[in-house]
Amino acid sequence: MSQVKNQRRVNEKEALAICHSIRTSPRKLNLVAQTIRGMSASKAVAELSFSKRRIAKVALTVLQSAIANAENNHQLNIDKLFVKAAYVGKGIVMKRMSARGRGRGARVLKPFSNMTIVVAEREE
User: Fold this and answer.
1) DSSP strand E in 8-104: where?
2) How far apart are CA 63 and CA 118, in angstroms?
3) Are 89 and 114 in contact (CB under 8 A)?
4) In three state form, how does the secondary structure of 70-97 look?
5) What is the pLDDT of residue 2?
6) Average pLDDT score, the chain
């Protein structure tokens, strides 16, 4: 009566990393994700390392985690890795109040995002 083993979400030659609750809007984070889609892993690391966007540092840690998962958990060759997919989803939204004139209040929305990066081994 043991539990059934979880099915893999990706193929045998792929590895993924997910980061939840990133403190930025999905729209801004998706601009960073677009820059690395389809790139080789080493070029994507270099691209995110020198990006001027603040959130690129978080995206870099997610990418490095995906590369580490590929190397350590799935025994993939890191020299052949490329970013197969990088997508962003909506997370929670914190709602805050900001004081306005005449005793009114305005709603301030502070969105969070989720990011998933899938790296795969390129066949020659």
Assistant:
1) 14-22, 81-99
2) 8
3) yes
4) HHHCCCCCHHHEEEEEEEEEEEEEEEEE
5) 80
6) 96
Tokens of 93: 């939204």
Cβ–Cβ under 8 Å, residues 97 and 107 = yes
Contact status, residue 86 vs residue 118, Cβ threshold 8 Å: yes
Share of the chain above pLDDT 70, in %: 99
> How far is residue 97's CA from residue 106's CA, in Å, rounded to a whole number?
6
| 14-121 is classed CATH 3.90.470.10 | yes
Q: Are 97 and 114 in contact (CB under 8 A)?
A: no
Q: Where are the domains of the chain?
A: 14-121
Render the burial of 49-86: b for 16+ CB within 10 Å, e for the rest. eebeeebbebbbebbbbbbebbeeebebeeebbbbbeb
pLDDT digits (tens, 9 = 90+) for 46-85: 999 999 999 999 999 999 999 999 999 999 999 999 999 9
